Amino acid sequence: MTYKFALPILAFAGLAACEIPDENTLSRADYRAFEADDSFARSLSITPAADIPAGSATYQGHIRSDATLEGQSGYQILGLLEMDVDISSTSSIDGAGEVNGSITEVNLLDNRDDGYEDQSFAGELTVNGRVSQGQIDARADGLLTGVLSDIGSDTADWDLTLEGNLRDSTGEVAAGSVFGGTDGTNDDYDLQLLGGGRFYAERD
Fold this sequence. Notes:
Elements: H1 2-17, H2 28-42, E1 55-69, E2 72-87, E3 97-110, E4 119-120, E5 125-132, E6 135-147, E7 153-167, E8 173-182, E9 191-193, E10 198-203
Antiparallel strand pairs: 1-2, 1-9, 1-10, 2-3, 3-4, 3-5, 5-6, 6-7, 7-8, 8-10
C-alpha cells in the first residue's frame, strides 16, 4: 500500500510547489485606451507657468510602455498612477512645488507565444519628485513581485523616471515620458521599459 500511494503524493507535492500568477487587473483593452489618452495629451498645449493655480490637486491616470523581460522583447507594462501635486503659493518660481503619489496595479502583458504568463505584480511604486514652471520630474520606486520562474515568486526593485508637463489651459492634465525598469540590485528578474513609455493623469 505504501508504494501505491508514494508517486501520487510526490506528484501532488510537486504541483503544490508551483505558484500561479495573480490574474490581470488591467487588460489589453485598457492598454489601447491608455494609448488613446496619450495621443490626446500630445494635442494639448503646455500650461503657461503663470496660469497654474496654487494649491494641492490630485491627478489620476496611468503609465504604459513596451518592455523587455530577461532581454526578450514582446511584453507590455501598464499600471494606475495617482499623484498629488502641491503648487506653492509662496515660491519665487511660478508653477513650482512637490509631487508625491503611487503606481499601483502594475500588470504584465505577454505578447510572445513562448514567454511568461500575463499577470499582475504584487506591490506598488512610490512616486516622489518636484514640479517647476509646470515641468514634472519624479521617480517611482519600490519592490514588485510576480511569478516569472518555475521556482515560485520573484521580486525585483523597480526604479522609474517620470518626466513631463502640466498641460491644458490651467494644468488639468499631467503627461509625459516614463522610462527605467528593475535596477539590477539583487533582482530575481530583469525588466526594462523601452522608449515610448508614457504617463497620463487628469486632475480630479
